[in-house]
Amino acid sequence: MRRLTTAPVLILPDAKEPFEVYCDASKMGLGGVLMQKGKVVAYASRQLKTHERNY
């Protein structure tokens, strides 16, 4: 439970190193994580709008 209540620590990206992108989608939203060397560079997520859910 501690991981859900503490702020995430992000690293600065190194353009010379490879990146990993993990993404997922459902009927209600989208989410993704950009990682490098097993550490998080950025998180992104959002809910889909009504017209996007119908697409």
TrEMBL record:
Stored InterPro entries: DNA/RNA_pol_sf, RT_RNaseH_2
Residue span, Reverse transcriptase/retrotransposon-derived protein RNase H-like domain: 2-55
Domain of life: Eukaryota
Entries under Pfam families matching the protein: RT_RNaseH_2
Record's protein name: ABC transporter C family member 12-like
Organism: Trifolium medium
